[in-house]
Each structure stands twice: as structure tokens, then as C-alpha cells.
Specification:
Family (chain A): Belongs to the VPS35 family.
Number of strands of chain A: 0
Keywords (chain B): Protein transport, Transport
Helix content of chain B: 10-25%
Distance between the termini of chain A: 112 Å
Oligomer: heterodimer
Family (chain B): Belongs to the VPS29 family.
Structural class of chain A: mainly alpha
Number of helices of chain B: 3
Order of helices and strands of chain B: EHEHEEEHEEEEEE
Radius of gyration of chain B: 15 Å
Shape of chain A: elongated
Strand content of chain A: under 5%
Largest sheet of chain B: 6 strands, mixed
Organism (chain B): Phoenix dactylifera
Protein name (chain B): Vacuolar protein sorting-associated protein 29
Distance between the termini of chain B: 32 Å
Shape of chain B: globular
Order of helices and strands of chain A: HHHHHHHHHHHHHHHHHHHHHHHHHHHHH
Largest interface: A-B, 53 and 36 residues
Strand order of the largest sheet of chain B: 3-2-1-9-10-11
Chain lengths: 559, 190
């Protein structure tokens, strides 16, 4: 009865009154008063009244309310959903909105977008599986936005962000959103600032849901969407952006890179290449953030491929460690644009170690060469040099792939640079660290006792020089700590069985330290005292161990 | 009973996006009295997050840390124990226990906490205990293969410390514990 008699009469009255305020109020009442099932069934009739209303009536608000009511109705129970399909609700609403927007030429853009937001909410509630409907709504939005300049109105942009966020929240899966062809087109109409806001929303959605994006195509589509974060839009850098905000932005891109993954090495390599292609457009400010995660992602792939030869005859296998190292080399090289020599040095050393594990001697050597070049030419800060040389020594110590010549060249360079550090204590420590380059505990490891001793002796000379310098410059000897450190190193190699290091050598060093510590000249240093005491305790403990170790330590006298 | 959280080598965002969800849900503010971190956080966001768990946060510098002002080593006393903290990339050979023992003697501490290798270790020797909490995110390491995310919680009670290690293995958190007692005469001179 409502459908046949009541509603048409009411609507007739509403239209005929021709008073915009009354019309608005009355339409509102109709929607609020009558139950939602009624509205569904009379949708066509109801919607047909809208174009007949006075042009000044705020139809979009009324329409939005109607859609919101119907959305809630749909959400209330799954049983009502078939009814929506039966009455073709989506098609009718969609067309009604289209007509309203067309008719009200002066409607501000925010009004139109709000209508689409309501329609989208409706669609996601009622027809969540119909991606084509969702895309249609976005498409209508694109049409409305096209031909205009990028949006300036903040209310409108807020609504667009709401529009674009809705599918993300509904599906919790960026991959679904990537299937919406109009999604990127809507984003293109945002101003740069809002585009980036939306990009961050997308990344947050991915991180929150731990979504894994698993093909190069999807990665390509995703990076298209977030391109505002990846590179400077319109070629002009965004100088207004706060440094903290920029860091946060880029760090979220970095985190995102870890979510791009596929078990299949070929596909993973494609993903890596796609990401690389995009981040290299980012410019010097972004590279320090985006290059490291890509490098480590690639190193993980190398590790998976380790042991697999890849050079199977007759098969074209693009994903090989060698190929990946080439890509890595070029990628890390890009950091020279920044410039970020310390970071690049660390990454080259990581690659060298990985190449070592893949038995690729020339590749490992090349990475070391690059690291050394950076050290020589770019790392100027003395504190940075200390860390850098220790990283080089530490990595080199672990290399087992190098033949004698290559190894000699690199160790020679490492020890040379160690002795050239600015401060004497730093020189001393780096040089005795180099002693480990000549003694590796593995079965086939190098065990060159003589060169070990040479390093330790050199360290002693430097420690002596440091003492003398302190004497001259400060009038009293510096701390004996360096000597105690070197003593500990002597003990280390003594225990390992270096024939060059005898108990008498150690005894001599102990006497030396004792003398130094008791000398009037020496400034008292409680931490050096404690260090010496604990070292002597250690020697005592080893003596008391008995067996081979006890015998070894027997000749050493401590009092 | 004093609870000390020891963790490090998170390498966020260079090598990992975040702490594992299961760890995050276990680490609740207000339950821990001290946090000691071996380094390689690497960004301020991680520092702030750790600070929110416990205001008494100690961090030493890892080679990838954004903030280069963290100290190379740190010592602190908790109850009867002297703890030493150092990232470990400075001690060569990396992960070598004898070389770490030397650092322990130099810092004159009962418990030395270091990282860098991303491999959990708890090792007792005549001079004390060396603990490596591993990598809290299971980050890639050139030194260790197949890193499982791990961290350590120490319960210090007068002369006894119980070391709980939490490891995420195949999606499940496994806990193990090791007891250490400090002998009262450990530091008496000969």
C-alpha cells in the first residue's frame, strides 16, 4: 500500500509545494520515518523525485542520508542483502547521483565527492565482492575531477582521502585495492601533499595487516600509487617538508620494502629490479633510506641461491648470485650521489662477505676494492675512520676465499691504514686487531705465527710512543691500559699455540707493565689497575687448570 | 627482584620492518626496571619505543645506528652485579669468546652483554658471564645463518641472576633459562 498509494501521493505534495526548505525537511522526514525495507522497495520512485525538487535544495545531504541508512540496514544482517540485489539498488542509486550532479552545475566539488563517499560506503557494505561496482564509483569520481586543476579545497581532499581509505579498510588487503583501475586515477588528482598522505595511509595499511606483495606487477602498481613518496613530483623538490616528517616518510618506505617478497627466486629478482628502478629515481635525499633495505633483501635472496649453481647447461637461469651481486654493485654505487661513503662502505663489506660464502673470489675482491677506495678517498672523519677500519679488518678476518696474493694485498692495506689512524691509541688497537688477520682458528685457516708477532710488536712500539708522547706533552706517562690490552692479545695467541709467543715473552711484558705501573711518573688509573688485576687472575686460573693449559702457563710467574 | 631486558641488533628499518608481533605483545611498559641495548636499533623511532617500555634505557653504538653519539661501551651496576654493554663490532674476531673475555676483564664487569653476531649466547667463564641476546627482529646477518628473533630478560636477585632467553621459532615463542650465581669472593685479589 505504501508503494502504490502513500508514497506517490506524498512525493507529489512535496514536489508541488515548491518550497526548498519545506522540500528538504519533508524528504528528510520520509527517509527517517519510514522503515528501510520500504525505501528499498520504492527506491526507483523515491529517487525519481529528486530531480524534480527545487534546484536550491541540498539534495546531496538527503541522498547521502538515504545511502547511509541503507548501508546501515545492509550491515545489520546478511539476510537483507539479496533484497538489495533484487531491486538493483546500486544501479539506481548510482544513476540518481549521476543525474543530481549533472543537474546541479554549481555544486561545489566537495559535495560531489561526499556523495561518492556515501555511495562507496554503501557499495562496500552491500556488494563487497563486486570490485567492478567499486571501480565504477571511483571512475565516476575521476570523471567529475578530470578537466579541473589539482584540488585545493581541503574539505574536498579530506573526502577523497576518505574515499580512497574505505576500500583499504574494508578489504585489509592492498592487493585488492590494486585491482581497482580507477584508484590511481583518483590519486592523480590530489595535490602533492595529500597524495603523500594517502601514500602513507596505504603503507600503514600494508604494515598493519602484514600484507605480503608477491609479484613484480603488483609491486609496480603499488609503487605507482605511492610515487609521491618515492620521488619528487613535478620535478620540483618539496622544500617545505619538515626534516622529521621526511625521515618518517622515507623510513616507512624502507619498512615497506621488506613486505615485498616471493619464494620463487626468479620472481623475487624481478621484484628487486622493479623496486630498484623506482628508488633510483628518488634522488640523493631518499637513497640513504631506500638502498639499504633493498640491499639486504637482495642478500637474503643470494643466500637462498647459495649452493645452487645456476649454470646448468641448457637452462637460462637469470637469478644467480653473480647476477645479483652485479645489481648490488650498481645499486650501492648510487650512494655516491648523496654522498654516503660510510654507509656504502658497510654495504660493500656485507656484499664481500656474501660473495665469500658463494665462492666468488673476484667478486669479493672487487667489493673490498670499493670499500678501500671509499676509505681512502671519502672517509675523512677520524672517529669514522676508526670504525671503518675495524669493519674492514673484521670482515677480512672472516674471508676464506682469497688466494695468497689477494689476501696479502688486502691485509697489507688494512695494516697500513691501521697504523696511519690519527690518534696513537687508535693506531695501536687497530694494529693489534690486524694480528687476527694472520691467525684463523679454522681447520684450513691461516696460522702465520710470525706475522702475528710482528703486528703485536708493532702495537707495542706504538703504545711506547704514545707513552713517550704523554711524557713530553703532559709531563707524566699516560695510562698503561694499551700495554695490558696487548698483553691479553699475547695470551690469546700463546694459548692458540703460536710458537713465536713464548712464556718468557709474556713474562717480559708482565714485568714491563709492573714497572710502568709502579713508576712515579705514571698517573694512577684505577680502571687500568683493575684490568691488570683481572688479567693476572686469569693467568692464575689458567695455571691452576692443570693439564696441557696448566703446563703451558707454568713458567709464567705472577706475584 | 630486578628485571633487566637485554636486546639489540633490531636493524629497523634497514633489515627488518618491525619487532615480531608476538614479542611486542609481551613487552609491556612498567614491568621492566632497566633496558640494555647492544645497538643497531637503528632509528629514533625504535629508541622512543624502547624508552616507552622503560625510562632507564642504556644503548651502545652499533655501526648502523642513526645516532652516532651513543657510547662505544657502557657499564652499570644493578644490585650486586656489574654489567658491561658493547655492540661488539669493535671486538675482533667477531663473536670470539676469548676476545670478548678480554673486554670483560677490561671493563671489570660480572656480566658482559654484546651483540653483532645476531646469535644468542650465554657463556660462563672464570671471569663471569658473556651474554649475546641475538637479534630481536631476526635480522639478516653475514655472520649467522637462519637467525631466529630473540631477546633476553635477566632477573637479578642479590647474588643470583636468572637469564631467560625468548626465541621465536616457527612462529612460537620458546623460553629457556640459565642460572648464574656470583661467588662473593669473585673479585678478591690474590
Amino acid at each position: 500500500m505504501y508503494k502504490e498509494t502513500v508514497l506517490p501521493r506524498i512525493l507529489e505534495q512535496v514536489v508541488n509545494c515548491k518550497d526548498d526548505i519545506a522540500q528538504h525537511y519533508l524528504m528528510d522526514c520520509i527517509i527517517q520515518v519510514f522503515p528501510d525495507e520500504y525505501h528499498l522497495q520504492t527506491l526507483e520512485t523515491l529517487l525519481s523525485a529528486f530531480p524534480q525538487l527545487q534546484p536550491t535544495v541540498d539534495i546531496k545531504t538527503v541522498l547521502s542520508q538515504l545511502m547511509d541508512r541503507l548501508s546501515n540496514y545492509a550491515a545489520s544482517s546478511a539476510e537483507v542483502l539479496p533484497e538489495f540485489l533484487q531491486v538493483e539498488a546500486f544501479a539506481k542509486l548510482s544513476s540518481a547521483i549521476g543525474k543530481v550532479i549533472e543537474a546541479q552545475v554549481d555544486m561545489p566539488i566537495v559535495g560531489a565527492i561526499t556523495l561518492y563517499v556515501s555511495l562507496l560506503t554503501f557499495t562496500l557494505r552491500v556488494h563487497p565482492d563486486r570490485l567492478d561496482y567499486v571501480d565504477q564509483v571511483l571512475g565516476a569520481c575521476v570523471k567529475k575531477l578530470s578537466g579541473k586543476a589539482k584540488l585545493e579545497d581541503s574539505k574536498a581532499t579530506k573526502q577523497i582521502v576518505a574515499l580512497l581509505s574505505a576500500p583499504l579498510e574494508k578489504y585489509n588487503d592492498i592487493v585488492t585495492a590494486l585491482k581497482l583501475s580507477n584508484y590511481p586515477r583518483v590519486m592523480d588528482h590530489l595535490d602533492n601533499g595529500t597524495n603523500k598522505v594517502m601514500a602513507v595511509v596505504i603503507i600503514q595499511s600494508i604494515m598493519k595487516n602484514s600484507t605480503c606483495i608477491s609479484t613484480a606487477d603488483k609491486v609496480e602498481a603499488l609503487f605507482e600509487l605511492i610515487k609521491g613518496l618515492i620521488k619528487d613530483m613535478d620535478g620540483t623538490p618539496d622544500d617545505e617538508l619538515d626534516e622529521e616528517d621526511f625521515k618518517e616518510e622515507q623510513n616507512s618506505v624502507a619498512r615497506l620494502i621488506h613486505m615485498l617478497y616471493n619464494d620463487d627466486p626468479e620472481e623475487m629478482l624481478k621484484i628487486i629490479c622493479t623496486v630498484r628502478k623506482h628508488i633510483l629515481l628518488g634522488g640523493p635525499k631518499r637513497l640513504p633510506f631506500t638502498v639499504p633495505p633493498l640491499v639486504f633483501s637482495s642478500l637474503k635472496l643470494v643466500r637462498r641461491l647459495q649452493g645452487q649453481d645456476g649454470d646448468v647447461i641448457g637452462e637460462e637461469v637469470p637469478a644467480t648470485p653473480k647476477k645479483i651481486f652485479q645489481i648490488l654493485h650498481q645499486t650501492i654505487e648510487a650512494l655516491s650521489l648523496v654522498p654516503s661513503p660510510e654507509l656504502a662502505l658497510r654495504l660493500y663489506l656485507q656484499c664481500a662477505e656474501a660473495a665469500n660464502d658463494c665462492d666468488l673470489e673476484p667478486v669479493a675482491y672487487e667489493f673490498f676494492t670499493q670499500a678501500f677506495i671509499l676509505y681512502e678517498e671519502e672517509v675523512a672523519d677520524s672517529k669514522a675512520q676508526v670504525t671503518a677500519i675495524h669493519l674492514i679488518i673484521g670482515t677480512l678476518q672472516r674471508m676464506n676465499i682469497f688466494g695468497v696474493e689477494n689476501r696479502d694485498t688486502l691485509t697489507h692495506k688494512a695494516t697500513g691504514y691501521s697504523a696511519k689512524l690519527l690518534k696513537k691509541p687508535d693506531q695501536c688497537r687497530a694494529v693489534y686487531a690486524c694480528s687476527h688477520l694472520f691467525w684463523v682458528d679454522d681447520q684450513d685457516g691461516i696460522k702465520d705465527g710470525e706475522r702475528v708477532l710482528l703486528c703485536l710488536k708493532r702495537a707495542l712500539r706504538i703504545a711506547n710512543a704514545a707513552q713517550q708522547m704523554a711524557n713530553v706533552t703532559r709531563g707524566s706517562s699516560g695510562s698503561v691500559t694499551l700495554f695490558i690490552e696487548i698483553l691479553n692479545k699475547y695470551l690469546y695467541f700463546f694459548e692458540k699455540g703460536n710458537p713465536q709467543i713464548t712464556s718468557s715473552v709474556i713474562q717480559g711484558l708482565i714485568e714491563l707493565i709492573n714497572t710502568e705501573m709502579q713508576s712515579d711518573n705514571t698517573t694512577s688509573d684505577p680502571s687500568a689497575d683493575a684490568f691488570f688485576a683481572s688479567t693476572l687472575r686469569y693467568i692464575q686460573f689458567q695455571k691452576q687448570k692443570g693439564g696441557a693449559m696448566g703446563e703451558k702457563y707454568e713458567p709464567i710467574k705472577i706475584n | 627482584m630486578v628485571l633487566v631486558l637485554a636486546l639489540g641488533d633490531l636493524h629497523i628499518p634497514h633489515r627488518a620492518p618491525d619487532l615480531p608481533a608476538k614479542f611486542k605483545s609481551m613487552l609491556v611498559p612498567g614491568k621492566i626496571q632497566h633496558i640494555i641495548c647492544t645497538g643497531n636499533l637503528c632509528i629514533k623511532e625504535v629508541h622512543d619505543y624502547l624508552k616507552s617500555l622503560c625510562p632507564d634505557l642504556h644503548v651502545t653504538r652499533g655501526e648502523y645506528d642513526e645516532d652516532t653519539r651513543y657510547p662505544e661501551t657502557k657499564t652499570l651496576t644493578i644490585g650486586q652485579f656489574k654489567l658491561g654493554l658493547c655492540h661488539g663490532h669493535q671486538i675482533i674476531p667477531w663473536g670470539d669468546l676469548d676476545s670478548l673475555a678480554m673486554l670483560q676483564r677490561q671493563l671489570d664487569v660480572d656480566i658482559l652483554v654484546t651483540g653483532h653476531t645476531h646469535q644468542f649466547k650465554a657463556y660462563k667463564h672464570e671471569g663471569g658471564v658473556v651474554i649475546n641476546p641475538g637479534s630481536a627482529t631476526g635480522a639478516y646477518s653475514s655472520i649467522t645463518y637462519d637467525v631466529n628473533p630473540s631477546f633476553v630478560l635477566m632477573d637479578i636477585d642479590s647474588l643470583r641472576v636468572v637469564v631467560y632467553v625468548y626465541e621465536l621459532i616457527d612462529g612460537e615463542v620458546k623460553v629457556d633459562k640459565i642460572d648464574f650465581k656470583k661467588t662473593a669472593t669473585a673479585n678478591a685479589s690474590q
